[in-house]
Amino acid sequence: MVIIMQTGAPESEVDAVLRAVEGAGFRPWVNPGVERKVIALLGAVDAEKAELVDHFSALPGVERVTLISEPYKLASRRTRAEPSLVDIGTVAIGGPRLTVIAGPCSVENREQMIETARTVKQAGANALRGGAFKPRTSPYSFQGLGVAGLQILAEARELVGLPIVTEVLHPNDLDDIVQYADIIQVGARNMQNFRLLQEVGQTGKPVILKRNPGCRVRDLLMACEYVMLEGNPNVILCERGITTFEDATRYTLDLNAIPVMKRLSHLPVIADPSHATGDWHYVKAVALAAVAAGADGLMIEVHPNPAAALSDGPQSLRPDKFSDLMQSLTGLATAIGRELPVPCE
Ligand code: PEP
Ligand code: MN
């Protein structure tokens, strides 16, 4: 159930509604940052539904009360009709402007990271990615540089002025990650690691939540609730390919999920064609398709020398290919009425 307050309802009326909600045994959640406050009631609203709707509708300052049938509440469009913007420092993801996050799969060393940072910035990227804690299928594969990798990312940020995105695998690493990163990524493998999601929520930092290849859109939206319930509304959804019978590509980007998520949720949606395809040959085509389908941004793996990459080389774009993608994106953005990624200074 959500209670939609009248535009400009005074704080005293909002407070009175909050007290009434608590008095009825529910936990209220106020949608932050909107002119017209929306109060969501968290918890099962069962038998007394109709009575409660009448009770809350009659309170001063209340415009209307709606029942939300979906299991996800805070991420739902019904809680917030207007799209949410997530501020990542240089830009806000979710508005008319497209956002491009680019960088290597893993931070490997200082030179590789700084060279990549410079080239992606020059091509127009808005944020820099790089994994310091890597979720590898094999424990014998490169696991990331850990804190040393975070320090290299922070140095790259200093040099090029782009905010940094990095993945968390374990709550024990969160303090270090919060110290260095601007945006925390929860990867596909941890999408339903609910304790981790809660801890990430408590940091208050913007979170990129990647869809697990075996999970439905609604499971992803339920995972969002774990982050948002901790008081962190800054969640960005990421479609990165799902498991299908097709093996010509690593996964299959679920293009449908983009307009579906945009309709069901107010949260920004980005797409990751690098992990979806697993092959650089297809990254540009799938990236453009995702943006045409309504994605608010892209996450792209870029490496100065993909053949020597310690992880995900085959899907990484060389800097010249990344620049080419950015150029095509510029043309596409104009055609579909989106704005271009902010040019670098
Ligand atoms: C990554 O972004 O490097 C990564 C491991 O992605 P995913 O969780 O989507 O596999
Ligand atoms: Mn990767």
Structural overview:
- The chain has 345 residues and is α/β, with parallel strands linked by helices.
- It folds into two domains: 2-66, Alpha-Beta Plaits (2-Layer Sandwich), CATH 3.30.70.1140; 86-336, Alpha-Beta Barrel (TIM Barrel).
- The protein is built from eleven helices and 14 strands.
- The longest helix has 17 residues, at 319-335.
- The radius of gyration is 21 Å and the shape is elongated.
- The protein starts with a strand and ends in a 10-residue tail after the last helix.
- The chain binds phosphoenolpyruvate (PEP) and manganese (II) ion (MN).
The strands making up the biggest β-sheet line up spatially as 7-8-9-10-11-12-13-14
Largest sheet: 8 strands, parallel, barrel
Into which percentage range does the β-strand content fall? Answer: 15-25%
Radius of gyration: 21 Å
Corresponding CATH superfamily of the largest domain: Aldolase class I
CATH fold field value of the largest domain:
TIM Barrel
Large-scale geometry: elongated
What is the CATH level 1 assignment of the largest domain?
Alpha Beta
Q: What CATH architecture of the largest domain do you see?
A: Alpha-Beta Barrel
Helix content: 25-40%
Low-confidence stretches: none
Bound molecules: phosphoenolpyruvate, manganese (II) ion
SSE diagram, text form:
Blueprint: E1 2-5, H1 11-23, E2 27-30, E3 38-42, H2 49-57, E4 62-66, E5 86-87, E6 92-93, E7 99-103, H3 110-123, E8 127-129, H4 147-160, E9 164-167, H5 174-180, E10 183-186, H6 194-203, E11 207-210, H7 217-228, E12 235-239, H8 257-264, E13 269-271, H9 273-277, H10 280-292, E14 297-301, H11 319-335
Parallel strand pairs: 7-8, 7-14, 8-9, 9-10, 10-11, 11-12, 12-13, 13-14
Antiparallel strand pairs: 1-3, 1-4, 2-3, 5-6
Helix pairs in contact: 3-4, 3-11, 6-7, 10-11
